[in-house]
Amino acid sequence: MIFDQLSPHFGAIVHGIDLSKVSDSDVADIRAALVERKVLFFRDQTLDDDGQVALGRRIGELTASHPVVGGVDSEHPEVYALDSTDNGFADVWHTDVTFMRRPPLGSILRAVTLPPTGGDTNWADAQLAYDSLSAPVRELADKLVAVHDGNREFGYYLAQRRGGRGNEWDGEVVTKLEPIEHPVIRVHPETGRRGIFVNPGFTSHIVGVSEFESRAILDLLYAHLTKPEHIVRHRWRPGDVAMWDNRSTAHYANRDYGTDRRVMHRITLRGDVPVGVPAS
Predict the structure, then answer these.
(1) Helix (H) or strand (E) holding 190
(2) Is 195 helix (H, G, I), strand (E, B) or coil?
(3) Does pTM surpass 0.85?
(4) Where in the numbering of this chain does the TauD/TfdA-like domain appear (predicted)?
(5) CATH number of the domain located at residue range(s) 2-269 in this protein
(6) Domains of the chain by residue range
(7) pLDDT beneath 70, residues of the chain
(8) 37, 36, 73, 77: which is closest to 56 by C-alpha?
(9) Neighbours of 213 (CB within 10 A)
(10) Strand 249-253's sheet: what is its strand order?
(11) Which of 35, 155, 191, 261 has its CA 20 to 30 A from that of 272?
(12) Which residues are marked as active site?
């Protein structure tokens, strides 16, 4: 597979693959590159919702569109529409759906309607960020557990717009968003690399420390995770598709396009339960 690296360790633009007709070898190459480069960009694609779902099924097992938000239509329950005219923004750093016991392995995002300017998306490399922490901070973070809570962002939506009944996730219909604990440092199940696994969008606090200690630790990790040297930024064009490894990244969509419309369609791949650093 041919790609242009966007930084020494992180991100790539992939060339020469038509995502509407990937071969088995293409799928294997994409999966390997996704783990290695963490976020991939494919230009000049012609996918529609059917094609996006078909692609996702080749790459992995699809989830519902979201634990709480319904699919784009009845024929595509796997497709999550992020529409700026319906509060479909993502302008806070986050990793997708970490408020569930099994967050997605990865996501595939397709540009549908783009504003004339703006609306770029930024990704942060959680593994590079972990590696560049000082040793004493790494040793502290390795031992910590955090709570992730989807109620702040989606509790009202579940109660008021879905009548308390969300989608099926991991074999159960979501009727409430119970806060869930995950390790602050996640060990990638395929490479064994460690990465920062907290995010401002869904992490509420650190377990077993005071409120002030929790806030200080999280603020430190957020600031470090989103340092410029840990980030790649993508300027969207019509036909663009992005894929990312949800186990090793966080992302942020710029909300800088005023009243212009921005619509993105996302699908997610079923993941596993995050595993932390083994106790020494």
Answers:
(1) none
(2) strand
(3) yes
(4) 5-268
(5) 3.60.130.10
(6) 2-269
(7) none
(8) 77
(9) 12
(10) 231-234, 121-125, 249-253
(11) 155
(12) 94, 96, 251, 266
